[in-house]
What does this fold into?
Amino acid sequence: MSITAETRSTTSPRGVSAPAAPIREAPDRTGYCPFPLSSDHRAFGLTTSSMRLSRATVSVRHGRRTGSDTATILLHGAAGSWTTWTPLLAAADASGLELTDLIIPDLPGWGDSALPKEGPSRSIEATAAIVAEIARALGYRSWIVIGHSLGGFVALELAASEARSTAFVGLVSATTFSVIDTVRHPVARFATLPGYGAILPVLRALAWAGRAGDGLIGLLHRTTLLRALAAPLFRRPELLHASVTDYLRAELRPQAFAVASDLAGAYAAEYWSRIECPVRATQGDADIFVAATDAARLRAVIRDFALVTVPDTGHFAHVEKPYETLRLVLPNGCRSDPGVFPQ
It folds into this structure.
């Protein structure tokens, strides 16, 4: 395994410029989408490293070390990268709660990390093993892991396979049982998650089209239609920073999305019964990728599970309501004075 530190410009892999405006100040903590997304790792005191691991080469943002042997790992969802966590980091800094010992990888297939070739490296289990290898290569023996959407799925597998090393799991709109069911039975279970059931065949077709599919996504972005198509993912799309749809265009990768869905459909969710640590989950009240039945099914297999629904929020609570999400998904020992967060 090798680690190469890199100095990068503040531009995403597909040329999306980071916002020039300050990202650590928000005038209204109760507002919707108070921060833009940013690709400037230096603004958050992080280093970018390319890590050549046993299963893949992965781009990782990491830093703010304190000497602790416990890392805080943030795992993004599908059609995302490490940048989707920057509103949460900005909210933490603005609240006087500096998240430390951070590890924020671009999961394989997303951001600056290449999609592995077909084989054993393509699985939820392999992805979780990559995350554990990253943490240990950086000198950590245990971790708190917070995952959004697909990242929440991976976080649960990490906690199941590395029960002794995982101290806490925070979930933000984790895609779990209903996604598994929809992938396995797209017609019979379509009504369970109609939003996801509708988008999956479209992205499969775009993946099959290859470069033509990527070109179509670019065209949709240039004509603002992509913003309209992404609107169901957010509770108030008209209030989103332009940076959110810019990054969505950059990270909407049909092949990686289709592969991730197939991997979720092949996963045996009963493994989550091996989780020993507390699991705290949030989901938006307008979340189209999480079914109402998911929480009860998770509670049935995870011994210490609790869910809070965040009002006026869609599938991206850490972007839409980052202050509220911080308050709900961090373990008690990592929270500052609760008075700094809006109730």
Notes: The chain has a mean pLDDT of 85.
